[in-house]
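hey all, quick one before standup. I had two proteins in the batch that finished overnight and I want to keep them in one place so we stop losing track of which output belongs to which input. First protein below, input sequence then structure tokens straight from the run.
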Amino acid sequence: MYNHEGYEDVPAHILEALDRYAQTGGHLGSFLEAVITNDLFRAVGHADPDSMQVLKKIVTYVCCQMPLGCRGSKVIVKAWRT
């Protein structure tokens, strides 16, 4: 499990999904998939109101808490899953 301290305003299900993905390469919904592949337009388009309010915090979590090799582009994400 990754450090959730300081991310209390991010919905728990989002942090859990990101952690699960980082550990197992598991499936993410459209919003989080867009976040980890750096697709801002798609992330904003798929964000629910709660996620949109904390989008900056979610991106900070991805950048600061998750392994570098599991995020950044569709190619990187595909490699992480294989």
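OK second protein, same deal, sequence then tokens:
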Amino acid sequence: MKTAWTVLAVLVALAGLARSPQATRPEAAPSAALPARPVASRMNVLLITIDTLRADHLGTYGYRRKTSPRIDALAAEGAVFEQAYTYWPKTRGSFVMMMTGLRPSLNGYRKKNPGIVGFNATLASALNEAGYATAAVVDNLNVAAQHGYDKGFDRYRETWAEIEPFEKEMERSRLITEDAVRYLASPPADRPFFLWLHYVNPHAPYTPPAPFDTMFLDGDANSGPVLRPVKGYRGGVREEWEVPGKRLGYYVAQYDGEIAAVDQEVGKVLDSLRNGGAWANTMIVLSSDHGESLGEHDYYFDHGENVHDPCLRVPLIMRVPGAPPGVRSRALASTLDLVPTILNATKTALLPDLAGRSLLAQVAGQEDANGVKLFGENEHHHTTGFDGRFKTIAILDDTSAWRFSLYDRVADPGETRDVARSAPDAMRVGRRDLELAFDRWEREWVRTRAKLEGAPPPPPMSEEDCLRLKQMGYVGTPGCENY
């Protein structure tokens, strides 16, 4: 362990030289590459992403219910980032940002190109080119290979193509686990591996299997208003998901049941990694593509409509061989940071123009010396910039003008009161940072649009796939407008 910790200390030092903490991410300097080392000596990487998972519904983040004993145990062995956020609060866009490490202005993600466009390098392609065996087992049509998410993977397994009907969500979760257990029991002997597992639970509709469907039907499950059926996601529960007479607390209990169910699956994967002998040399990263609104801002059981914390905040747990256990970091972290952190930890050359930074120093227990500001966007022209206290939100209205608001996230964690008038200095700083970001991103888009002109159009969505996505609540998915 002493040798491993020495290696990590060197990596942290190199990380600090390559990427110093940045005051604002849009002005980050180009990434610097670390010297590579022989493939055989590189650590493995296990990336586990859990769809729609709120950080504040896990025990390690202080949740009162025992939803996540296995994830909590992993957290105790690694580093927990208490303030981690997705850049884009919808699955497709989130994984484009997470896997490229770039903002849309550089990776070309937009309504006309809702996937990973071919000119992008990805985390998997960088590791694969560096000699890694790469495999993925995923469950969510939004990350289908046809949209480019398989780039760089030697094997890309889509569980929804194997298990019908589509509602059998838990069976697909078990399929992911079974595949991972086999893989980790006998990992590649001649190469390090990168394995990505994506579980769709606890995505709506919330239908946990027994015994998790009744596990949290306590007093809190009978709290809150009775939810009326509605067509969309405001003012009540989506009509096809309604359980007549049930209160808000019931649906939250079912959401928690789905977390507990997938936590059990994660535990089986971690047991296999430990028993297979690769634990000591494997970096584990656990996170989510986005959070979920559970009634905050009158928005129920969906994500992505706004850029408030319930949709943006995600768990981020990293266990790196040789790092001290039990680290809890208050540093602001983004899903954009995964690519530079993993490439840095594995001593793989960093990709150019990365928007994030390596978090290895924070994994080792160091805190940020300078202020860091994060940014986020969604498909409804909402953009946000925020630090540890103030969040500025800009919304493009029907007249193509930006409307700005400001929230004090310390005094008002629910982000319910616009303090733009009562905190004019903070509003001025936040607005300036967003306007500078808009200017930089527009300059980047000029170059990226030129690249997109030669890119092939995205493949059409089949009627079957569109109907599957509609069952999950995805209405208006690009290519599915007529279904």
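Flagging for whoever picks this up: The mean pLDDT is 90. The domain at 382-471 is CATH 3.30.1120 (Arylsulfatase, C-terminal domain).
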